[in-house]
Every structure is written in structure tokens, then in C-alpha cells.
Amino acid sequence: MRFRxxxxxxxxxxxxxxxxxxxxxxxxxxxxxxxxxxxxxxxWNVFGSPDVLRQGAETLDGPTSGWxxxxxxxxxxxxxxxxxxxxxxxxxxxxxxxxxxxxxxARLASYRKIHLFDNDVPGAAYEESATMAxxxxxxxxxxxxxxxxxxxxxxxxxPELFRILxxxxxxxxxxxxxxxAVTGRAHWEPLVRARAIENASFLVAADQVGTLAAGTDGAVxxxxxxxxxxxxxTVVAVAADGEGYVCADLDLDSVDxxxxxxxxxxxxxxxxxxxxxxxx
Length: 280
Hints:
There is one protein chain. This protein has six helices and 17 strands. The model has no long low-confidence stretch (mean pLDDT 95). Helix content is 26%, strand content 30%.
């Protein structure tokens, strides 16, 4: 079983119409390149300061979700519509939410980012928890004959999530992101490859690129380098600088082969895994 996937790379702004126009063109180009599963970046539709995110937040029945459903239906593809700032009724906080749409335009799954990006790294400082509330559900969904696991950006640093996705049957994991250039230069490729290797899964990682008006200290540079990594940890496609996309064929038989050759899931010993008490 094989299908073609694409990771779309954009530079999002506070202008929703502009961002949607760019995404429309890039999704169309990826489909023209044979993509059946297309993944957009994190917060691709509206990006900016906390105030910009609050003003641009939508429900999952809002205009961006409507665009995503129509686009998936129009092209007959599975569309992982990156993530958007989802408004939460009665709460001042939002969710950072990723949704998967099927070829019939139906929303198949919604994932709310579990791990929020709070850090004090010079040049990458950000406090996501000031705007967003964390999700609490690990999500998989069917797409292209595979089970797809949903994760978002900072989740990449938490291998527990990816292992659970694999144990829930995921052979492909989608990762909409806006990794900073400061951390991306050191950590992006090693972490994406590690999560693929650890679980013998494909990773389709769609990152933002360029200057984003978002950080605690002002503008932050997004790293780009959107990539697709196979179950053996090989980077099979990586994006050039600037807005664009990359495509690769995903052979699901290679997941079975990698898990046979290096049976890390089968060799687990959960009975002896005793999590330490972090509060002690």
C-alpha cells in the first residue's frame, strides 16, 4: 500500500485572506504533483501577537474550517489543515487545534495541542500558555489506507506521545509546526528523525518559514525545512527556503519491514516501566 503525501510550507501573517490564498495555491500545486494527503503548518491561517490570535480565533465551524472542507472535497484529498487558533466558548484561552478532512469534505478528527510552547530561549522566547489552553486527548484517524497520528510542533519534544500514537496503530504522523530558527537549527531534523526511528513511522512535518510577528521579544524567525521522513529515519524530502511544498511517496509496507527489522514496539517491557514521581 502506497500513497503520496505533501508538506506545505508558508509564512503566515495576520491577514487571513492572504494566508488562505497562498495555501489554496500551494495545496493545488501539491495535488498537481500527485499528493493525496496534504499537511499545512501550525497556525497557518492567522499568525501574530496574542491579540492577533485572539481576534482571529474561530470555532471549528468557522470560515477556515469551511475552506478546508471545501478544498478537501474539491481535490478529493485528505487535508490536514495545519492548526488554527480555536475559540473556546466562555474561556479567555484558545486551543491550538489541528483538523483532518477527508475527500468527501467531512472532518474526520480534531486534535488540540497537548504540549504548549513556553520557553525563555534568546531569540525564540514565547509563552503559548498565555493564549492557549492545552488539549488532553491523543488522536488518530484513518487516511489513505493508513492510521494517521496527529501532533503539533512542540509535541515533537515529548516522545511519550509519539510512542502512544504508534501503539494506537499510527504508521504516519502529521506535524504542523512553526519551529523557530534558533531551536530549529539545532533540533528540528534530529527530533523529527528520532520520532520516526523510535516508532518506525513516517513523519510529515510542515513548518512555517521566514519572519513571524509572534515572539515575546517581537518578531521570530521560523526555521522552515519542512520534511518527510521514512520509518528508517531517512529524510526523503525537504523544502527549500521560502513558501512552497515537498512531496514523497509513502510505502506502508516499509513500516512493517522497519518494525520487523528493529522490533522496538514488540520488544517493549511495560511491566517494568515505573514512572518516577516528579513532585518528590
